[in-house]
Amino acid sequence: MFEEEIMKKRTGMFCLLLVVLLVGVAAAQSQPAPITAIKAGRLIDPETGTAATNQVILIEGEKIKAVGPNLAIPAGAVVIDLSKLTVLPGLVDAHTHMAITYKEQPENNYYYLTYIMESTPLRAIQAASNGIQLLNSGFTVVRDVGNNALYADAALRQAIEQGWLPGPTVIPSGPMIGSTGGQFWPTPEMYKYHNIMFPEYIDANSPDEIVRAIRENMLFGAKTIKLCIDCKPWGYSVEDIKLAISEAAKGGCKVEGHVQTTDGAQRAIDAGIHMIAHGNALTPEQHQQMAVKGIFLNGTDTPFMPYRGNEQAFKRTVANLRDAWEKKVPLTFSTDLDYWNERMKNEKTGEWLTRGDLTIAFLETWKAADIPQADILRAMTINGYKSADIIKERGPIKPGFYADLIAVAGDPLTDIDALRNVQFVMKNGMVFKKDGVMTPEKFFHPGPVRMPSGRWTR
Ligand SMILES: [Zn+2]
Predict the structure, then answer these.
(1) Ligand 1 mean position to 300 CA, how many Å?
(2) CA 277 to ligand 1 center in whole angstroms
(3) Is the whole-model pTM more than 0.85?
(4) What is the pLDDT of residues 254-288, one digit of tens each?
(5) 346: CA distance to ligand 1 center in Å?
(6) What is the chain's percent helix, strand, coil content, to nearest 5?
(7) Do residues 373 and 38 touch, judged by C-beta distance below 8 A?
């Protein structure tokens, strides 16, 4: 009898607790999301390359609710006056590396040594810092594609999603998948006895190994798959690449192929890959084929700067970019930034350039290739969202989309350099930067305040 009494009491307590919990959840749900109203002096639609004046953008919580010229601003809404600025979607770096920084000292730009000398935790913190610097320059989405320590890219994506710190939406690839050796040339003892390839690369040499590598990356958080098509003469065949594409699709991932030879590029094109990284090896005929198939080019078009590059390589890069544009290849803005040196300073002020400054400096190549401003802007936004495969939820400033937007003085449609001075940044409906100053306090939390609804939701 006594036990029954206890059971009854326990059941009663449990029911009470449940009621309290349910009431709490209902109260939380019934609390309306805060409304923000942005007054935009000019609002750019990069898809059409047009701008509308005096628009109001209503944002409810994390998402855009309405956009138009004469919207009524609800009572109690927070009003942000950007009527003197041009508002546009956040920018995309479609190919970068946030968790590796090879240097002239001490490793002589040899990233095999960076990998040995810098720990995964250090590299993860570097990635977090790079993310904040990129967001400060208006980059709200980055594809982070390999050389990421032990899935630091996926961890950063998760941390930003959960609300630990501010940063762009990270599209992580996990380790690059390649055939024996990846992009390293290790000694036999390091390769055979010390398993030096992993976690910087995953060796996958047969169809079974390719399938296993892709599944592992997706299990550990990859949202895109990066293949080394021709990093070694024993690279992937058309059949290998097709297999990778179909396996990645099972986890909702698209495949990017690193190519450095014309033969490798041809195999990637023939297999119908989603994106090709690096434009240097591509021929005009291959540009034509990519345009027909709609294959994105993440050209990683490095400018010639006091801290990087040389004139000859730059001329080639500019000519290749120009030809790809003429052939109507879908182009993204992409950098491949993964290096640093002590010349990376503002020539006038002597101050260090930020990761955002270094990224936006790639505009130099696009300007040298004489690509129309509207097309550059499309590469930096719409094509970036498409190549990252998030165009259905992020990017366009339209109802239902996440509120990721930036504002600049001037008009990037007539002067693309206006993007160098981002005055305002909003990410997921929260203000990260205002009046040219970072105000990121609302992004920091000591716990996961924004748990995504499921591991596989994108
Ligand atoms: Zn790269």
Answers:
(1) 8
(2) 7
(3) yes
(4) 999 999 999 999 999 999 999 999 999 999 999 99
(5) 25
(6) 35, 25, 40
(7) no
